[in-house]
Amino acid sequence: MAALRVSRISLLRPIPSGARALGPKARPFSVSAVRTAASSLFPDEPARPTVKTDIPGPVSKKYIDDLHEVFDTRSLNMLADYNKSIGNYIADPDGNVLLDVFPSCYAQIASIPLGYNNPGLIAASKTPEMVSAIVNRPALGNFPPYDWADTLRSGILKAAPPGLNQVFTAMAGSDANETAYKAAFMYRRQRERGGPQAAFTEEELNTSMNNTMPGSANNLSILSFKTGFHGRLFGSLSTTRSKPIHKIDIPAFDWPQATFPQLKYPLEDHVAENEAAERASLEEVEHLIQTHHAKPAAVVVEPIQSEGGDNHASPAFFRGLREITARHGVLLIVDEVQTGVGATGRFWAHEHWDLPSPPDMVTFSKKAQAAGYYYADPALRPNLPYRQFNTWMGDPVRALLFRAIFEQIQQRGLVAQAARVGDYLYAGMQRIAERYPDQVANLRGKDRGTFIAFDSPRRDEVLHRAKSLGVNVGGSGATAVRLRPMLVFEERHADIFLEVLEKIVAS
Q: Residue 61: phi, psi to the nearest 5?
């Protein structure tokens, strides 16, 4: 079908004030600017969303009630019908089909890279290699497949950040961060003892069983940033600072936190203020490294604080962070669980920073469909076996899937596409922000692919209304509306989002 050659962002009539936020009364939906040319990857992808019922509708409610008897459904966003979901669109059992622009469902918390029911990934899942990995799931630390090195080199390590050539595979993002923290602590203590050959003392061995020093290094820590998110396990949760609901009632380590720069927008109008905020943050990091009673073995940072409100900082800030950590012998862990695998217009977001030396570890998960951390220094391997260990130590199924994902990203130029579509989407949102500055504020994410966000004084209403109009978008922090589309997101999908956004903010 030929693409429609009309204005990309049209003026839309406001929704009447009495209209319902969700449901059939909000259903009329016209997208005059949508490009309807079918994607070669998903020829059956819908041209636009379809909303038939309230969300959740009657069929979904029945399934939810049944599920709630055996599973906690209180965090449920919507019930999905994955057999009918395709490309950038997610379906539910009531026949609603939504453009999936953001995590949770929104691209499955930013973890779907190549669209629903991607034919290339389906083909990869049917190979004998994949079937063997599924039915013979190995305990990788004890019984890895004979070709495990080939699997890693052809996939996970082929995608490794520049300068990092080894990997420890894990189960999920929280697990990736936890094991990276463990590596940092063991590295620090080995160095303090004089090297990996130094033996443990009898006192260290005995006191470790009582969780006391010197065996338990309670005088060490991981330094993180306020409003950061690094997971929900015990160590990762102690570095998570985004919302009290994540942490309340859970024992936590007394570890330091620094202020992440709170930039003002537009950036070009607040250069001096933003430089001062970043400088103050770096000074605080250095002060904590030097004075905190639990000495940081590592600093962990997200390239873009996602859960905490989509907070950005400049490449200069991160270069400063690398310089400080290197000077003080503190490891730098870059948490790329959400930012990795192409969505920022680079395969790894930290590639935007032009660092003088690579991070010491880079954790990954989500869009990789696998998890773990990359590193280069052999000393980050503990001096004895079983110190960094668990039953599965990752999953060959996920490693094979990441290989197929990486191959498709390369073949289709999807990182460059994310950069191009992100520029297009940002420009459209900037035009809306100029017309409705009180509704679309602090627009951020320029030149960061589709990692785009803005603040709204009526954020929850925006999210609710967008869903009623067929677009699944989400929020973070207190006021942020953020986008996390898949790498197969195109300009025609951006057109739909832009029209829906303008319809909402104009009403």
A: -60, -40
Pair of tokens at residue 143: 């019984």
pLDDT of residue 174: 95
Burial of 251 (0-12, 13-18, 19+ CB in 10 A): exposed
Please name the helix (run of DSSP H) or strand (run of DSSP E) that holds residue 170, with its range, or none: strand 166-170
25 is catalytic: no
Looking at the fold, whether 94 and 242 belong to one and the same domain comes out as no
Instruction: Choose the catalytic residue: 92, 310, 335, 395.
Output: 335
pLDDT on residue 40? 75
Query: What is the C-alpha end-to-end distance of the chain, expressed in Å?
Result: 32
Of the residues 102, 229, 347, 402, which is catalytic? Answer: 229
- For residues 363 and 443, state if they share a domain: no
In terms of Cβ atoms closer than 10 Å to its own Cβ (0-12, 13-18, 19+), residue 79 is: buried
Which residue in this structure is represented by tokens 């379809």?
Answer: 50
Asked if residue 173 belongs to a domain, the reply is yes
Going by C-beta distance under 8 Å and a sequence separation of 6 or more, which residues neighbour residue 283? Answer: none
Which stretches in the chain have pLDDT values below 50?
A: 1-38, 103-107
Which string of DSSP letters, residue by residue, matches 263-308? --SSGGG-HHHHHHHHHHHHHHHHHHHHH-SSEEEEEEE-SSBTTT
Q: Does the annotation mark 243 as catalytic?
A: no
Place of tokens 């260290």: 204
Catalytic entry in 42, 318, 366, 402: 366
- Rg of the chain in Å (alpha carbons): 24
For residue 418, being part of any structural domain is answered with yes
Kindly provide the residue ranges of all beta strands, DSSP E only, lying in 63-128, ordered along the sequence: 89-91, 97-100
Domain match, 167 and 246 both: yes
Catalytic residue among 65, 391, 447, 460: 391
What pLDDT, on the 0 to 100 scale, is given for residue 476? 87
C-alpha to C-alpha distance for 69 and 230, rounded to whole angstroms:
31
Active site residue 391: yes
Same structural domain for residues 360 and 417? no
Strand-pair partners of 334: 301, 362
For residue 394, being part of any structural domain is answered with: no
Q: Residue 95's domain spans which residues? A: 80-110
Helix (H, G, I), strand (E, B) or coil at 496: helix
Please choose, from the candidates 70, 94, 71, 68, the residue with its C-alpha nearest in 3D space to the C-alpha of residue 81. Answer: 94
3-class secondary-structure state, position 224: strand
Residue 44 bears catalytic tag = no
For 352, list phi and psi in degrees, rounded to 5: -70, -15
